[in-house]
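Allow me, if you will, to draw on your knowledge of protein folds for a short while. Thank you for your consideration; the sequence and its tokens are set out here:
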Amino acid sequence: MPEDSHHSSRGSDHPVGMNVARRVPPADDADGNDDDDAAAMGLCWGQPKIPDPFVWPQADALASSERELDAPVVDVGAAMRGGGDGDGMRRAAEQVAAACASHGLFQVTGHGLDPALARAALDGAAGFFRLPLATKRRARRAPGNVTGYAAAHVDRFTANLPWKETLSFGHRDHRAAGAHVVVNYFTSVLGSEFKPLGAVYQDYCEAMKQVSLAIMEVIGVSLGVGRSCYRDFFADGCSIMRCNYYPPCPEPERALGTGPHCDPSALTLLLQDGAVDGLQVLVDGEWRPVRPRPGALVVNIGDTFTALSNGRYRSCLHRAVVHRERERRSLAFFLCPREDRVVRPPPRLLAAARGQEERRRRYPDFTWADMARFTQRHYRADARTLEALARWLGAAAPTCAAATSASQSQDKAQETA
């Protein structure tokens, strides 16, 4: 999930992390000021200069490097052939291990995503963001909620605003949930005329879930815990889908589409539209671009998986830049565990670690519900989210005591696997 949350401490009046200006809705207006979205779109998009709230600090808006990020292209289809035990899997696992121990990003091909479905999902996002503001506002995001429509997060912040619009919604396997949750979201929030678009995103999310689980098999092999360990962990998870729109910006050197952050989720699958770049990763003090590759999905590690790997795989610190004349769209699928599932490294991973230091737990137990609440209501995700979450949990509950019995059952299942 991109950086769109406020920093404060649970159980304390003192903030954890950097101070970020935040808009607090009046008591008689729980949804905030109805003019916020209109101000962001009408007074900013298409204007000759950007307002001060959209100007980012120079340290965050450093110039982009001319050097493209050296990210491996992993053929996940070849990895899964022959039951996932051949040379294709070994090659993919080596590539993933190298990328995740360095900057945490790679690209995948051979994923099986239908190009027609990908095009329909991208075109659907383009059509949604062209709708009248009044229509988009039907899906307006409620305070503290990750799902819904937002324009530049002006409903939550007064500084360091991202130059973008987003539409986010949740996904669960409809066979497990008993309903087409994405279709139901579109029809209940936007209206029955949006059922076909909801069906497109239902299919797209289900395809992304299957690709994510295949990637988790490769990651499991790369860490030596087996193909099923992480796949089983996320099989019944809840995920988040986000459509991003970055309008042309009159002063792109002073603005950012998304500020520097690591995703709180476990894994992000990004589909970039066309040849317009924008995604960048910080490596050796340089912001290096990730060029769109036809037919490929960009995959990056998030904080939740960093905790699951006990810090062996790094969260990807990234940002999105904007352009003076070109607009950009992308689709991000954030793989997350079930809300009550305890996030902790598999016992096999710790047992196989070399030396006492590598076996030492780097992060406390937490659930995805903990992480989601923290990053949506208390902290604006950045490069220090996991450390801040550990402090936040320490102030409220040392190691997710409410989930102790669930974590013990989980350990036993992982050891059996």
About this structure: The longest strand covers residues 239-246. Residues 36-416 form a domain with the Jelly Rolls fold (CATH 2.60.120.330).
